[in-house]
């Protein structure tokens, strides 16, 4: 489970994410270079089994090969422009 990031989120508005993969073979690309500002993490969580919010504070995508969690509260998603937030109704509750 993700650590409590509420203080971090309030202070700097940055988002935290975690990726749990069942196997390192599910990582397709990992590019970290000194002196380069861009880092790429690419892989697969497999076939999507569930997408929802955990306690309204973490967006969780569960696949057959792993889980992706993003520090994105349901209320933050609702604040996005309607064009983007219109998909909110597709998310389910995990809590």
In which order are the strands of the major sheet placed?
A: 1-6-5-4-7
- Low-pLDDT ranges: 88-95
Helix coverage percent of residues?
A: 10-25%
SSE order: HEEEEEEHHE
**Mean pLDDT over the full residue set:** 79
Strand tally is: 7
General shape:
flat
User: What distance lies between the first and last C-alpha atoms, to the nearest angstrom?
Assistant: 13 Å
Task: Work out the helix count.
Answer: 3
Structural class: alpha+beta
Report the radius of gyration as a whole number of Å.
15 Å
Give a description of the structure.
The structure is a single chain. Strand 5 and strand 6 form a beta hairpin. The chain has three helices and seven strands. The C terminus is likely disordered. Helix content is 17%, strand content 36%. 4% of the residues are buried. It is flat and about 35 Å long. The chain is of the alpha+beta class and 95 residues long. The protein has one domain. The strands form two sheets. Strands 1-6-5-4-7 form a five-stranded mixed β-sheet, with no helix packed on it.
């Amino acid at each position: 489970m993700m650590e409590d990031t509420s203080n971090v989120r309030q202070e700097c508005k940055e988002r935290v994410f975690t990726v749990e993969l069942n196997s390192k073979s599910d990582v397709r690309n990992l590019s970290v270079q000194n002196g380069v500002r861009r880092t790429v993490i690419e892989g697969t969580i497999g076939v999507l089994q569930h997408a929802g919010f955990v306690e309204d504070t973490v967006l969780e995508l569960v696949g057959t090969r792993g889980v992706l969690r993003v520090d994105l509260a349901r209320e933050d998603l609702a604040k996005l422009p309607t064009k983007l937030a219109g998909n909110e109704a597709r998310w389910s509750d995990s809590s």
